[in-house]
Amino acid sequence: MTPTVAADSARPASDRTASPDVYLLNASYDPTPSDDGSPSLPAARGVCSDRLLHVLRGPFRSDADVDSWRASIEAAVSLGASASARIAANTGNNANTVDSANNANNAGIERDDDVQLTLWLLYALHLHGLPGVDDRWEWHPELLRGTALLEAAFEARLRTLSREVLFRAGVALDAADDADAADGANGQSAGRDDVGAGVLALTHLDLGPSLSAQIASRADLGQVREFLVLKSIYQLTEADPHTFAIPRLRGQAKAAVVEIQSDEYGNGELPRLHAELFAVAMRTAGLDSRPGGYVDWVPASVLAADNAIMMFGLHRRLRGAVVGHLAAIEMSSTVPMRRYAQGMRRVGLTDEVAAYFDEHVLADALHEQVARHEMVMPLVRAEPELRDDVLLGAATAVMLDSLVARDVLSAWEDGSSALRQPLPGAVPRAEPPVPPQAEPFATPGGRAPAPRRVRDGARIAICPDGPLLARGSIPIGPIGQDPADAPGRTVALCRCGRSRTKPYCDGTHHVIRFAAP
Fold it and tell me: What is the pTM of this model?
């Protein structure tokens, strides 16, 4: 199978014609898995990724000549910088910059297929490796130099776009931004004192149409499968990039990241590992569950979202950004996850597919409180200089998520696929959807929250305008019955009265803008 898309499809025409030899596509693609069952290396999307793949396919040499590859990176970065400069010149320094950047005719590095695939390949060397590639390439000095060039351009672009997102949310990065940020949020500024409130404001920001609403109510089975493919690039390695933050943190912030990540890793139980739950969902939906199996299918915006997390996680100096990114993800996912689960069942996919999303409805209702009050705020109190990077990470998460949603919904609205090439294989048989039964003291999928290992002793924390966090051995059950045994479990208990999974919180307090008396 050969990809049918052009490597430079997201490039402005002026860039493509200026230097056509820089964007040649190596169209060869071998769908045969490697000997260990992992996917084969992806097809190149331009000269940067083509020359990198040529290097990686060869034997490892400490003195390998990668000058031509590094020269192609320098050319790509130069063109990307000029495209970004044109965007700024055409729009000025205002909130419309984000919309302009989301226009394919004004694409920046976040939409560059060749650059984003090159970064993804380089980051894969630091994570789970690449099939048939010598692991020693991970720390090859010349590859690191090329990575640094791409990262410098990517980080600069993210900082520019994130500042505009923060402006819209009314969140100031520095003292000079305070008044402007209040104007951008119609006079309602999140201010500088509470970075947690700033991250929360970002997660409530409306940057465009909702992908989760589309999945919940209108997407057909084929589109839902495309959605799973797009999600698979990160979800099949879920938690791994953010976990790089743990050894770089100290104190309460470190403990909070460990608490969140322990849930992501199923608290030591393989069937509850979130990446494993998603792999089961993929297989049940008739899709490839191998990490990286669909890199050839996804657009640059999806790779950019994954690459941003890796870039933040791999650099100690960006530890604030990876924490902010994790916080934004955890603080914004409960309602979308509930919608996704609804959509899976609506098109007839089984509970095994919806189970991944069900798990996150309750898990992230807890995580959002831990992320804000026990991770982000203690980190900035201990290291105030990290405040702006925390907001950078959070704004990047929100902005790139919106970018992917725009790409997907635009393609579907035009009646086309959101993927770069058609999915192979048969569509799974859809079963008649079963109306969900509201069971007390259970998740939407009928399972109790995952057990959690926390310190001894029971205590309850009240989250501002949010749930109660119950930690320790607190048995919970209906009156008149033996309470459920809950040794060592931490749960978020509904306080707004509108949760669909009472007594547990499902994030509905965000939807109704609950304000505690």
Answer: 0.76
